[in-house]
Structures are given as structure tokens and as C-alpha cells.
Amino acid sequence: MLISKPNILLLVVDGFRADRCFGEKKTSITPNLDKLIKNGIYFDKTISSASMTFPSITSLMTSKYPFECLVEDKGLVVPHPNIINYFEKFSKKGYHIYSNNPKLIHHLGLENICSCISKKYEDSKAVNNKLGQTILEQLKSKAILEPWLFYLHIYDLHDAEFFKIIKTNNFLSDKKFGDNKYERMVSAIDVWLGKIFDELDLKNTIIILTADHGSVRGTLNKQTEKFYEKLVNQKSKNRSKTKLLEKIPKKLLSRNVDFVAKKLLNFKSLDLHDIQSTKSTTYEQRVLNYLVNPIENLYDDKLVVPLIFSGFNLPKNKIIHDQVQSIDIFPTLAEILNFSDMNQDIRGRSLFSQIKGRNFKETPAFIECVTNSTKMPKEDVIGIRTSEFKYFRNRNDAEKDVHLFDLKKDPLEENNIQESNHDIIKKMEEILLTLQSGKGFSYDKGENLTDEEKKKAQEIFSKLGYI
Question: Quick check: 78 and 452 in contact, CB under 8 A?
Fold first, then answer.
């Protein structure tokens, strides 16, 4: 039994790829992240259940798959009202719950479902632009009561357009901090992570660092990054022209909107022809295609995220290469703290035996393509990932959009081998079907948000260009 309860910092870095947190592909300068890993356990193959923020975080905090813990509510996906999350469970164990997260995920509703003290910041803020100081003041405050569980969501890495408005003390322009802007931003974030960690009693604090999903931006090289910046600049120009279009009297637009938009305002766009002209590889073309046409998908660029457990009574300098899942995070934390009674009716499992070096058998990871809003474009697919194979297909039709990749031979997922591997697909499909509920993989309908909250959320998504 524990004599005292350690504090818990759950730190989610939005859009952070596992291979840019640790490993040979990483080029950022991160002494504080490196120290955190050295003083703890790093799981380098952690699979998120979804490739977008809201469904992945809801899945993480409930240890259930998105189709189980979410409902569709007039264009939004929101937490299922009948599912108890781990913040509530820790609150019942005497923990004081705090959070600081972007308004983008306002309808996560932490302040409603676990009576926590929640701060929400504008999506244009970052730890490198005033938010970091706010977080430090929050941690220093005498108003924060122990033991606490603090959920901190950092948004700095999310969007390349975002990089332009963040003050990073020249990190973005200095190549010694990383091969591309994404990695240089990781270096900039690390400075503030160090300041945050310095405020904590690491002997009495468990730090968990992970991500909601990954990002293809971390893979951009000099050529593809230049192309993407061209896209970003053009989008910005088109957005300005759209605002100008809105000011034109409706009488002038009523007859021929397309003429006004394309001729008068001279709209431009980038398409597949532009991508092919970059002479990039098959993988690079796919990355650029998804940047030009942002459609949610189930490729590993968006699904493999970092996971670090560090601090209070945990082993040090341990790297674990087995595949695990984001839904395993809270069950693991519960067992570390001798709260195993929390781990009832969940999909995840505790990684505590693995942390202690005992035998551990990999379980297949369920993955599904679900967005923050039903209006966002997506490839409506579900699938299974093991350390050897990735399989996904249409949510409602097992014969449609079938993909199979050999992850050992083809880690970039360039060659779909589904036509010649029916036996593997059959096995993967059997695994997939064992996970479905009585209603299959469809979502319940709900009325979980007020009309005002729905309108606000839709406005935020629209502002960020998602819908």
C-alpha cells in the first residue's frame, strides 16, 4: 500500500511523432526530453486508436475504442454520457483534477464530467508564446491542491501555419535545432518542458508524456517542406481573398459566383500535378497529397506516438520496443498506484508487468478513422495493427477499401499486398470482428451538448479550416 499518493502530470503534445521524440530519425535538440526518457521508460511503438485529437483523447481517458466511447451529436463527436472516464475515477480516489487545454477540444467537457479546475486557451497560443508562463504560474500556485492529476495539452506542433505566429527565439530559422520546422519546434518546446519539470518534485510526481496522434509534417525534407510552405502561403492568400469576396455586394455575386471568385480574385490551388512535379518518392507524394487534401487516414504517420512514464518509483533508462496502445496508459497508471479496481470494463491493459521486465504478449491494436466533426473529410475505415502487419478496410463493407501492409518489409506502407495475402486478411478480419459490439462499429446518437456549445465548437473547427 502507498503511504502517500504521488502527483500526476499527463502531458499531451499534439501531433508528436514517436520517431521524432526518440531514435535515429530525430534531429531536434531536446535535453529535457532526453533526461525524462533516461529517468524513466520509453515505449517507442505506441498506437493511438484514432488519428485526430478528440476521438484519440476520449479513447485514452476511457480506455475504450472511439466507436464505444463517443456519440455523434449534430455534426460533432462528443463523449458518450454513459461512459465513466479515468479522470472521474481518480477524483473518487481523492485526486484533485486540473487541466489546461486548447479551446479546440472544449467539448471534451472535463470541467463538467470530473469537477476539475479547467483552463482553456486560444488555439493561437503556445508554450513559446505566453502559455508557457501561464502553466508555470498554475503549477506554482498555492491554490493547486495535492495530490493532483494535471492534464496539460500542448498545441505548438499542430500546424505549419501556426509556426509563423509563435515566438521561438529564432529556433525555426536555425537548422542546428532540427532538419525541418517541425523538429525545430520540438527543440523550442523542449526548453519550456524543462521549465515545467523544474517546478515539479520528481520524487513525488509521475510524468506521463504522449501525443494524441502523429503528423506527416515531421517527415518533410528541404524539397517537400518548400512545396508545403508554398501551399500554406497560397491558402493564406485565398483566405484573405475569401474575406474580400464576403464584402462584395450580393447583387454583384448573384449571377456568377465562380466568375467573381476565379477571375476577379484570381484564386489558385495546388493539385496532384504539382505534387508529381516535385519528383518525390511514392511515400513523399502520399504525404504531400494528404497535406494538400487533408483527409484523415490510418497510415502510421498519424498513429504511432511517443509514450514516456517517468518519476515516482519507476525504473530508469528503459526502452521498450513491443507494440502497446494509448488506451493502456490509464490502466498502467492505476496499477502503479495500486488502484487496479479502476480497471474494470475497459479495452486497454496495464503495462506494469512489462515495466517490471516480466513476460508480455503483444495484443493487436484496433484503429479507426474518426474525426472531431462528422463534416471533416475522412477515409471511413477501421482496422487492426500488429508489429508485423497493418490491415484496414471500409467500416461497413469488408470488401471495400481493403489495405494490407507488411510493416517489417514496408515500413512506409507504400505497397498494398492485399491481393496476394488472403489468409492474412482472413485472420486480421477475424480479430477485427471479435472487437465489435452488438451494433457493429457504428456510433450511437446523442444530445450531449447545448446548442450554444455546438455552435461554438463548429465555429472553432471552421476557423481552423477543418470544415
Answer: no
Residues 229 and 268 in one domain: yes
Strand pairing class (389-394; 403-406): antiparallel
Per-residue burial over 200-228, b if 16 or more Cβ lie within 10 Å, else e, is bebeebbbbbbbbbbbbbbbbeeebbebb
Pairing mode, strands 381-385 and 365-368: antiparallel
- Interval 237-262: pLDDT, tens: 665 555 555 555 655 545 455 544 44
Residue 197 has which C-alpha cell?
519539470
Q: Which residues of 21-44 are buried (b: 16+ CB within 10 A; e: fewer)?
A: bbeeebbbbbebbeebbebbbbbb
CATH number at residue 377: 3.30.1120.10
CB atoms within 10 A of CB 340: 13
pLDDT > 80? residue 452:
no
CATH code of residue 197: 3.40.720.10
